[in-house]
Design a protein that fits this description.
By secondary structure, this protein is α/β, with parallel strands linked by helices. The chain is 40% helix and 22% strand. The protein has a seven-stranded mixed β-sheet with strand order 10-9-11-12-13-16-17, sandwiched between helices. The N terminus is likely disordered.
Length: 398
């Protein structure tokens, strides 16, 4: 793993790499990396792999003269991410003087609640999965930071790319009419809006749209409305814990057997609490995306060491959690090499203009807003009770 910078950061990084190569952690000051994710109930199926990935990276890291630790906080309430609890957990992490950076959160709604707290404290956070553009871009992103320097970065690309990518995917499969449901959350509504705009631009028709927040468990009335419009496809903007699998199940029970599309909010494997587990056999003919690269470099090596530690194959965001921790660790090394490791020096190192990190995802850098320079969307379909990779598109190359 290495860090380099077109504008002079290479020499600093080289010192950090040399220091890391001299031996493992030898005690001394404890540096803590927080992990802030929804880790109970249905939310665990999505976010648990990201936690594992981050912890794996930390367990492998060595920094001479320092001890690396993790502090894991779960902000799920009733099985779903809770923005208020996420903000409270960030306040807890900010209050721990040993915490120099945070991996998380997983959901965009939680990020919207956390960023003002971490920004005020100058605490670096790296999300493996947030995709809502307003967290970083334009006036909305600037308002969350309140004029302060960028402290929030993410290795997932944004929904102004992901939503249109899923729309183009559906359209390429011959779909011309779609009914849309969103869960009213920051992520769910945002990706549904982006999907709808691109679908119409391509020549498709949105025949109807409904909003159903995460308290809804009976989707029969919404499905009846959808069926009456006779769509040839269905898009859900949201996550499994807000009802994605229940919607699909209700569709098939009502005879609305059309392809079902979603974003990365439903791409959570097939274990307990996942979209596939909730929807059961109804999950067939479902399609999803992940706002990150699928064909990661050295994928077999990563999968082997992940399985050796956790006894299971990596999930959709295992590598992204690992990458966030890698980036944080390299920023810590750069800060140490610069003479002082503080929250500010770690934050500044992570977002330095021109810096590129050699991660499990491949080379990753960040723009002036903290958004990843990787603009890759991966697309999946359900086959034989599991998500199967179909294609990936690099929008940075287009």
């Amino acid at each position: 793993m290495k860090v380099f910078n077109k504008k002079g950061f290479a020499a600093l990084a080289a010192v950090a790499i040399l220091a890391a190569a001299c031996g493992g952690s030898t005690g001394g000051k404890t540096l803590t990396i927080g992990i802030s994710l929804p880790l109970s109930g249905s939310a665990l199926a999505s976010a648990g792999p990201a936690q594992n990935g981050a912890e794996l990276a930390v367990s492998e890291a060595t920094i001479d003269g320092y001890t690396l630790a993790v502090k894991v906080l779960d902000h799920a309430v009733n099985g779903a991410h809770d923005p208020a609890q996420a903000a409270a957990d960030m306040t807890t992490l900010v209050g721990d003087e040993t915490v120099v950076a945070v991996v998380g959160p997983f959901n965009s709604g939680s990020a919207k609640a956390q960023i003002p707290v971490s920004s005020e404290a100058g605490l670096l956070q790296c999300s493996p999965s947030n995709t809502n553009p307003d967290l970083t871009k334009g006036d909305a992103g600037a308002a969350l930071r309140a004029g302060r320097p960028v402290n929030y970065i993410r290795v997932a690309t944004t929904d102004d790319i992901q939503g249109p990518a899923v729309a183009a995917y559906a359209f390429s499969q011959g779909k011309k009419s779609v009914f849309i449901v969103d869960d009213t959350e920051v992520y769910g509504k945002g990706i549904a809006d982006a999907f709808a705009a691109k679908f119409v631009e391509l020549g498709g028709t949105v025949v109807g749209r409904e909003a159903a927040d995460k308290t809804v468990t009976d989707f029969s009335a919404i499905v009846a409305k959808a069926a009456a419009t006779n769509p040839d496809s269905f898009f859900y903007g949201g996550v499994t814990s807000s009802g994605a699998g229940l919607v699909r199940k209700a569709m098939i029970q009502a005879g609305l057997n059309v392809p079902y599309y979603g974003g990365d909010g439903i791409q959570d494997g097939n274990g307990d609490g996942s979209y596939i587990a909730v929807a059961g056999d109804a999950s067939a003919d479902s399609y999803s995306s992940v706002a990150a690269i699928h064909d990661i470099p050295a994928a077999a090596d990563f999968a082997a060491k992940y399985k050796a530690k956790f006894g299971e194959d990596p999930g959709s965001y295992s590598a992204s959690g690992y990458a966030c921790a890698q980036i944080i660790i390299e920023a810590i090394k750069a800060a140490i090499a610069g003479g002082e490791v503080t929250r500010e020096t770690v934050r500044a190192a992570a977002v330095m203009a021109g810096a590129t990190y050699d991660t499990v995802l491949g080379p990753v850098g960040f723009d002036e807003n903290g958004d990843t320079t990787q603009k890759i969307i991966s697309l999946y379909k359900v086959e034989n009770g599991d998500w199967v990779f179909d294609a990936q598109i690099d929008y940075a190359a287009q």
